[in-house]
Each structure stands twice: as structure tokens, then as C-alpha cells.
Amino acid sequence: MFETTPLKIVAVAAGLSSPSSTRLLADRLAGAARERLAAGQDRRVEVEVVELRDLAVDIANHLVTGFPSAGLRKALDAVTGADGLIAVTPVFTASYSGLFKSFFDLVDNTALTGKPVVIAATGGTPRHSLVLEHAMRPLFAYLRAVVLPTSVYAASEDWGSQGDEYTEGLPSRIRRAGGELASAVTGRTVSGATRVPTLDDGEDAVVPFAQQLAGLRTG
């Protein structure tokens, strides 16, 4: 029997296009965390994705007026009330996007205290992967969140790749990060839930990026 109060995972996606690789990565990370949580305990698991592109005008208005719209307030409440948070941004000019930063500027600097967070980013080239360490990790450290060890960067070439003998592929990194978030949310030690699956564990099949992105289209 499930407990009455579900565990809630919230993913914030700051992609501007539709469909978006940033939203796709947010969905994959949330799915990995939900799968691990569902397998490890009896509480229901709810996942909510906050698309910042839909709130861009409301975010700008709030920065100017100090008053959030109902939709923006709902998004902020979801983020601050989550048991675990996933934050994903596209890389703009070697850092997180302005929309991403503007949204988290509206989060009270104590509201994420102790909350486990997976940080992730998307970009066109692997050269921008350090944005996770020089920009995103310090941002959430300032907000007093617990930033989990595994961060996930997805360059265009990472989609549909399984990695090689020296480098983990994107699916493995997603599962590792999702496992760490699930462990942190339920109070288990992160090290006990982060073994990287091998091909023998049923590694994801290689799916071309265009096909993955097409799956996000509606209607």
C-alpha cells in the first residue's frame, strides 16, 4: 500500500525551442529518478516538469513589478516544495541562459536549503561542459541546495551515443544521476545507488537524436 503523501520530483527545463533537447534531457533524468524511486520503496512518485519558455513573460514582469502571476507562483511553489529537483539549461555564451538565471533569481535564497539537486545542461559542443562546474554548481551552492556529485552535460553528439571504453555514454550518466537523486530523496547513501549499468544490464539501444526529439512533438 502506498503512503498518502507522494514523493515529488520537479524538473526545470529552460529550453527555448519546441521540441527542445533541454526538455528531452529533463524528461530522461526525471524518468531515471522515478524508475529508481519506484523500485526502491512503496510511496507514490510524482514528476512535474516546469517549462520556463512558457513563463518567460511572467518572469520578466515579476522582476519589474515584484508580483508573480498565478502560473509563475505555481511553478515557484512546485520547485520549493519538491523532494528532489532537476535543473536543466541550454548553454548561452558559456553559461546558463538568462531565462534560467532569472527564474532562480526569484527563488528565495533559503527556500532550497538542503534540497537535493541534479544539475544538467545541453549545448552544441562538448567544449561548454564545464558550465556545470563554474556556473551551475556555485549557483545552487549559494541557494544552499545539496548539489549531487553527478552532473550531466549533453552535447549534440552525445545523443544516440553509448560512449567508449574510456567515457560513459549519455544514458549511463543519466541513470547515474537519477540514482543519486533517488538515493538522496529517500535518505540512502548516494554511493549505494550509483553503480553504472553495463551492457549486460540492458543498456539503452542507440536511437538517433532526431528521432528522440521528434518524440516530443505533440499532435
TrEMBL record:
It comes from the Bacteria. Its EC number is 1.5.1.-. SUPFAM superfamilies: Flavoproteins. It is an enzyme of class 1 (oxidoreductase). It comes from Streptomyces mutomycini. Keywords: Flavoprotein, FMN, Oxidoreductase. This is FMN reductase. Pfam families: FMN_red. GO terms for molecular function: oxidoreductase activity. Residues 8-159 form the NADPH-dependent FMN reductase-like domain.
